[in-house]
């Protein structure tokens, strides 16, 4: 079993879209077709949204999106891992960990001082992994605007 992490390319759109839609459904949310397309365009246009795919034995089985942002706490940017999803069939096989590690390596190479992300409190499968690879020392609050 060989995991390969690589940047998203234009030819990956169909599989990326399939996985991204599964991810949105997993979180019991909805996005318009226009938002899916806008995200795809941003991933492929040099906009400040980056994406990686995970391949397991040649099949695309996961993705992550990440963003670099300025910080008021450091001269260097922080890296926010916004989305991470693996096909349920391959969970527990190291795909999520490999995606996180790849983003971590990119953030280190860019000189970032922090890599951070959030997940739902009831996402127990993901939290088992996250508790192994990172610290949890913050509580997140949010207000949905213009809904």
UniProtKB/TrEMBL annotation:
Transmembrane stretches, start-end: none
CDD domains: NAT_SF (cd04301)
Keyword 4Fe-4S: no
Residue ranges of domain N-acetyltransferase in the record: 3-147
GO molecular function: N-acetyltransferase activity
Keywords: Acyltransferase, Transferase
PANTHER family linked: ACETYLTRANSFERASE, DIAMINE N-ACETYLTRANSFERASE
Protein name: Glutamate transport system substrate-binding protein
Organism: Candidatus Nanopelagicus limnae
